Amino acid sequence: xxxxxxxxxxxxxxxxxxxxxxxxxxxxxxxxxxxxxxxxxxxxxxxxxxxxxxxxxxxxxxxxxxxxxxxxxxxxxxxxxxxxxxxxxxxxxxxxxxxxxxxxxxxxxxxxxxxxxxxxxxxxxxxxxxxxxxxxxxxxxxxxxxxxxxxxxxxxxxxxxxxxxxxxxxxxxxxxxxxxxxxxxxxxxxxxxxxxxxxxxxxxxxxxxxxxxxxxxxxxxxxxxxxxxxxxxxxxxxxxxxxxxxxxxxxxxxxxxxxxxxxxxxxxxxxxxxxxxxxxxxxxxxxxxxxxxxxxxxxxxxxxxxxxxxxxxxxxxxxxxxxxxxxxx
Length: 329
Prior knowledge:
By secondary structure, this protein is α/β, with parallel strands linked by helices. It has three domains: 4-75, Winged helix-like DNA-binding domain superfamily/Winged helix DNA-binding domain (Arc Repressor Mutant, subunit A); 91-165 and 267-319, D-Maltodextrin-Binding Protein, domain 2; 168-263, 3-Layer(aba) Sandwich (D-Maltodextrin-Binding Protein, domain 2). It has helices at residues 4-16, 19-26, 30-44, 60-87, 101-118, 134-140, 185-189, 201-213, 226-234, 244-249, 280-305, 311-319; strands spanning 49-52, 55-58, 94-99, 123-128, 145-149, 157-166, 168-172, 193-195, 219-222, 240-242, 255-259, 265-273. The strands form four sheets. A five-stranded mixed sheet has the order 4-3-5-12-6, with helices on one face. A hairpin with a 2-residue loop joins strand 1 (49-52) and strand 2 (55-58). Helix 1 crosses helix 4.
């Protein structure tokens, strides 16, 4: 079927945005890259590209294929890096981390800084996914460890709980709900709601509390993930229930969050591929990630107990946080 040179050409084309840029990245001529892409398309038996005025763009099928091809190439890159390290007598200090975007922003940054200071040759690839599905992770992903909202259950994954947050109510700082210390369910339902999809923990938790209280939620807007929900709230389109890590990772300066009177736990955990041994470097980094997540969760709880937590200040604190304290025996 397709060879690695053709897949490399496809990746270079996507990264560069054109055949000419792909040729520069690969150190080849444009005709050479064009022939590799055409051969790959012919080999696959379906159209990878739209061709318009001599310009190529990916088809929907091409994008779907590329997403999987990129994972194959990442695995090959890892093998090359490992082989080079073995030849040079170096230990393998590279990790591929699979995570949700909000974790990359709030939790992984401090852990990566600490790990880089402790291990001079440490490197990492952080690969983000809006939604991590167990079957997809097992069948399609190449990774050393991951961080996500639980549950994530599969016999081929080793899952370790880390910490649990509580859902908060997020609104603009100038919204009337921002004057409250805590937002109750009737207060929330009295305003335009922005909600996540029906399968989300937040949506299911909201509907459960509404059923128990005999109330009916009437969402005004719905989004596929919490990041977009917070962005819509920042535009003044309503209020929402949110994961506080997502709120902190949303680059909107005028958001506020308040405790929600009804409990909706949001558990976070680490997961590892059970089909491969876990090197020491993975264990070391996993400890740092867990300690960082617990520290950030505790800081959030302390801040929410005070009226009007400063989200911008909390973001700055997370970005400049020092190394986690060593665990006590």
